Amino acid sequence: MDYSKPFSLEDARIGVLGGSGLYSMEGLENLREVEVDTPYGKPSDDLRIGSLEDIEVVFLARHGRNHTFTPTEVPYRANIWALRSLGVRWILSPSAVGSLQEEIRPLDMVVPDQFIDRTHQRPLSFFANGAVAHVSMADPFCLNLSRLLIEIGEKLMPEGRQLHRGGIYLAMEGPAFSTRAESNLYRSWGCKVIGMTNHTEARLAREAEIAYASLSMVTDYDCWSQEQSNVSVEMVIDNLKSNAEVGNRIMISTIQKIAQTRPKSEAHTALRDGLMTQKEKVPNKTRKKLDLFTSPYWGNFEQS
Fold this sequence. Notes:
Oligomer: single chain
Order of helices and strands: EEEEHEEEHEEHEHEHH
Number of strands: 11
Distance between the termini: 23 Å
Strand content: 15-25%
CATH superfamily: Nucleoside phosphorylase domain
Shape: globular
CATH topology: Rossmann fold
Number of domains: 1
């Protein structure tokens, strides 16, 4: 099937963006690796396509399989473009976070529903150079995907560990962890967890008309908690390993549910009311780069 052309959700694939500690995904069969060139450069790694029962899954390690990209260096636009070019219309994003609230303990998990963005070195849009789009980010995570993650995650969490429904994800630039003053500021804003990647992905996924949801896996209390040890790489890695097995099980079960229900999302038509520039006014070079996303509304560029 040519996934560069319009297709229905019945033909779509599911994408998984693996974060720190999740550089591969167990349970996939008939794995093959695909190298994708994009108008935005190379993705973080080759994309691995495998099957899980009756649906194809595309896995990409956002930091690279050897963790060679900092949160700032991750080629976010290339990653999202590559996933969309392979027919992905749903993205699950398991990722490591720190907790900003006492009740959210290390080894708990959170399905967040909001963001506050504190990054400042990221490209946050595909649209520029003569083309403008304004997509809605009022609900930045797909409500339907998040609901599935919650329902399945609550059933699969080990005894003594909790999955929390909703909350604000504070996105920081990194790669250094927060100062204590910053951590306490974010707590005062009511943020629940802190991470370095999901907001950028969610913004771009919305423009690419891909539904996006996060499984935020808590590795530590951020440095606000002086009763706990300060955040260290060793602590984070130990908890990453513990989270990975549970996170993988939740991903597999959620993927199976997506395959059964093929949930629709507001994200799937995000550009319908978001494109501002008339296509006749967009430079050809820009039209060509955006064609993967805009062809349902502007027509196929090569045929126009």
